[in-house]
Write a structure and sequence with these properties.
Number of helices: 2
Strand content: over 45%
Number of strands: 43
Mean pLDDT: 92
Distance between the termini: 23 Å
Oligomer: single chain
Low-confidence stretches: none
Amino acid sequence: MEQMLPPITENLFGGMHADVSLKTQPGLSQLAQNFRLKDGRWVPRDGFVRMTGGSEPSGDGICQGIYNFQELDGTVHTLAFANADMYEYNWGTNQWAMTDLSTKGVSVSAAAKLSFANSRGKLIVTDGVNTPWMWDGATTYTLLTEAPIANMVCVYYDRVFFFDATATNIKFEWSFPADPTDGYDADGNSWEFVQTDAGPVRGMAPLNNTLVILKEDSGSFLRGNVEATFETDAVREGLSESEGTISGHTVVIFDGDVYFLSQNGPRRAIGGQSLERINEDQNGNDRLADIWSTVDKTKWGGCHGFADTQNRLIWWFLPITGLSSGAFRTAIIYSVDDMSWATARFADGINIISAAEVENTSGDEYVLLGRYNGNVLRQNAATVQDDGSNIERILRSGCFGSLDPMVMKRLCEVRLHMLLGGNITFEVRPVIDGTPIDAATSGVTFDSGLHRYRKAFNKQGFTVGYEFYQLANEAGPEIHSAMTFLTAFGSQSTV
């Protein structure tokens, strides 16, 4: 006998829980691709436009890094690096200007990702291949000949710290206060930081009075002033004996906390001193299980992250196995306020090598993405595409009926309450036992505003659900709520 079950109502969404094997609750989405959670509803992420004009970084090499550099007098420089050259964007003229760094007495490897720091209004740049250097924002470029060759750099207690050197040089080194040209190992300012993990320091996060130190398989933090006796006098505490970071470029500081990617997923060091597994729910279930299992670990040293402070989001770009040979087209996105997850997926050919948030001369903040071909993309709320490519938006529900796994269900109807910005073409697909099934497009054209959409189905499975799918040159919808109707009509037993 077939029995109508109470409708599953989702008036508030709680984020993404990407684990098809989990007994999910209503309101948790199995996949939220190119959506983000806002006040309990799913809203489409912004598109990105290419920043053209002038001597645009493009063509011959990767975008090695993007940085928002500010001098002490408040002058702001929006910088991108590609082909071993430096490019500065003029927000007034919308033009790029290129500086050939080889003519300035400094060397940069065209294949290397760069790390940046600001020391009292001076830009510090290192590539892990050549001697680090400093720029005053005008005409003076200075080689930091006493500094070590290292992949990463930061500033703590007014000292410039270089770290992530080589396997044979596991020291981190620092300058004298307010003088990036002097200090380091030659003056005793170095620490061979070896405890239970003998590898090099991969990541650092300087907070107000705490320096977080991350190796590949461990995490620590130091407290205390950086004086001549720093190595012996600093208070040293353990953060983790088993987890560190896969890349220093994944370390993000936001609101006094440190976010980074470990080998087992994203982590937050609260105040730099207490580790939290933000990929897990309150029951210890991994909310990113289906995504993290597809990460290409042979390429994850290239993972990188940044904070979108306007939307209070932390982004990390990942290489996915089988997706354009592990290209960085996918990002996992953590909402700091909602403590929820979503993903971004970019079209084939949009391989994101670097990313940062910058500020223009009016104080407006933008997210910039650096592509493998050197181009720079800017987030734009008025854009519904990514550099001319349509955005594939997917919202896949949880697996309804998973609490009764031996009872067959029939998906009867799905209703969506949506706010549209204009005409939209989409599909609402049935999801049977975790797998979406292609369905016809809506066949209905809606004007802008609030709309209620109904779709009837006759699909059977032990778990059922729905998927909203859109791939067109159109604005995405805000999905405010959903209601799903299903029946139960049988059970299965095995001997």
